[in-house]
Write a structure and sequence with these properties.
The chain has helices spanning 47-67, 90-101, 105-125, 133-136, 141-154, 174-178, 205-214, 229-233, 247-258, and strands at 2-6, 16-25, 28-37, 40-42, 87-89, 161-162, 165-166, 223-225, 244-246. With 261 residues, it is of the alpha+beta class. It is globular.
């Protein structure tokens, strides 16, 4: 990984460093760059950099898919897949909690009502118990797939979905960014392996965030279902503080964990 610095003021230490690196993606490569703060940051504070890196990886994959003659069905304004179980990393949960707290009281109340409605709906069908993190950790991969299918059948929209459009699209979770299909959008409403053609990602930064979360004391999943976000944020947890270092060093360590550095 090669890096070059950009000075904020002549004669001073740089506040940021311009980092350039090449990631191996299957048989190809993607060149990416990022502006990283040189000061100590937490993994949560590094999320904007990881979002930019994710966009670079996804852009390269989309380019390959289109060269092969396929078209990506996913786009802003399409909410077909927004009734699926979304595992959000603890660090993204922390960042989203901070953002929610910055909203007006009226906006926060509106969000709380939508989250409460989703949880009440799951509770009324008895499905809420299946989302208990303590139970999720014991599920096999096949059992998780079955539970995911049942989640979709419940028909509960993501609380951030408004008029079938993601209201947090620029800051949506990494797992949402990484979910791309070439099959018709309507198939995502009732997804099956036969009808939904998911674009394979050679690197998923969301998975690396889950692994980092599992390193925290008492954590077994490293993520929570997005629908639990408002309840989780009341705990006041700051998982990002457990991973703190100078920006370039923290990014390098994260990329090594991803197997990309």
């Amino acid at each position: 990984m090669n890096a070059s610095t950009e000075m904020s003021d002549a004669g001073s230490q740089p506040d940021e460093v311009h980092v350039e690196f090449t990631l191996a993606l299957g048989e190809g490569k993607v060149h990416a760059e990022a502006i990283v703060p040189t000061a100590k940051v937490t993994l949560t504070q590094l999320l904007p950099v990881l979002q930019g890196l994710s966009s670079s990886i996804i852009g390269a994959v989309v380019g390959q898919v289109e060269e092969e003659g396929h078209a990506i069905s996913c786009k802003a304004g399409c909410g077909a897949c927004c009734r699926q179980l979304v595992p959000i990393s603890l660090f993204e949960a922390e960042a989203m909690a901070e953002w929610i707290r910055s909203l007006s009281q009226e906006q926060q109340v509106g969000l709380q009502q939508r989250f409460d409605h989703a949880l009440r709906t799951f509770a009324s069908t008895g499905f809420l118990e299946q989302l208990d993190p303590a139970k999720l950790k014991d599920l096999s991969l096949e059992e998780r797939k079955v539970m995911g299918q049942e989640y979709v059948r419940q028909g509960v929209a993501c609380p951030f979905l408004q008029d079938e459009s993601c209201s947090i699209h620029p800051n949506r979770p990494l797992i949402c960014r990484e979910y791309l299909v070439t099959s018709p959008a309507e198939c995502c409403s009732h997804p099956t392996p036969e009808t939904v053609k998911i674009v394979p990602m050679p690197v998923t930064l969301s998975s690396a965030l889950y692994r980092a979360g599992r390193m925290l004391p008492g954590e077994v999943n490293g993520w929570i279902p997005l629908v639990f976000l408002m309840a989780w944020m009341k705990m006041g947890a700051r998982p990002g503080d457990s991973f703190e270092a100078g920006g370039p060093k923290l990014l390098a360590a994260f990329l090594e964990q991803c197997g990309t550095a």
